[in-house]
Write a structure and sequence with these properties.
With 226 residues, the protein is an alpha+beta fold. It is built from 5 helices and 8 strands. Strands 1-2-3-4-5-6-8-7 form an 8-stranded mixed sheet, sandwiched between helices. Helix 1 crosses helix 2. The radius of gyration is 17 Å and the shape is globular.
């Protein structure tokens, strides 16, 4: 799956993305309460997470990156998805920014330097979105937890919206009944994003996590699917 929207390309995540994905996530670990992980990861430590999101099924990993000149210029031949190997083309789609605070992302403020793609190089990682298992017990299989992380330098470009839109389109044919997002509070931007995509607030866990020397609430949002 590869979709292009102006200067941004959305596609399935691949092994080659692991270093940039890890750098981006580590930025949010170090600088924000958006994720409740406390220690940065190495790419090798994040590999099991990447492998738990195949290119089909209910648990997806989508990445957004700068479109290269070859991708933007149709005269250069068919666009090929590096993770799939074959020619692809398709309409542009978009999606929001979100994420729980249980080691998964939540849309939040852009703080600090760009975690990846410093200097805005062509093809730089702009963000990623995931749908993951909500809980390990088998009866939870029709539910997923969704998250979106955007690179700080990509703020204001609608990357989160592109990713979420593409993610929910990918899930449309899967056996998924509910999507959940946990948002560390306060986070008005993420609240607006999820509301726009049909999520509703279903409750808040108060002082459920401790980071940076204080306790944080997590608001939970639900989207009905299927």
């Amino acid at each position: 799956m590869l979709q292009q929207h102006g200067e941004v390309q959305v596609r399935a995540g691949a092994e080659a993305d692991l270093p940039a994905l890890t750098d981006l996530y580590n930025h949010y670990i170090r600088e924000t309460c958006i994720t409740f992980d406390l220690e940065p990861f190495t790419p090798e430590q994040r590999r099991p997470w990447l492998l738990s999101h195949p290119q089909d099924g209910p648990h997806r990993l989508l990445v957004a990156q700068e479109a290269t000149d070859r991708m933007k210029n149709p005269h250069n031949g068919p666009v090929r998805d590096p993770s799939m190997g074959g020619p692809v083309s398709g309409p542009s789609t978009g999606g929001p920014v979100s994420g729980p605070s249980t080691g998964r992302p939540v849309n939040g403020p852009s703080t600090g330097a760009a975690a990846s793609g410093a200097g805005h190089p062509e093809g730089a990682l702009l963000g990623y979105a995931t749908s993951s298992a909500f809980r390990p017990k088998a009866a939870y299989a029709p539910s997923v937890e969704v998250t979106v992380y955007c690179a700080p330098h990509a703020a204001g470009r609608g990357v989160g919206t592109l990713l979420y839109k593409a993610l929910f389109e990918a899930l449309a044919d899967e056996d998924v009944h509910r999507a959940y997002a946990g948002i560390a509070q306060p986070n008005e931007a993420s609240h607006r994003l999820h509301t726009r995509f049909g999520f509703r607030h279903i409750g808040t866990f108060t002082e459920v996590g401790r980071k940076f020397g204080r306790y944080w609430d997590v608001a939970w949002y639900q989207k009905d699917l299927g």
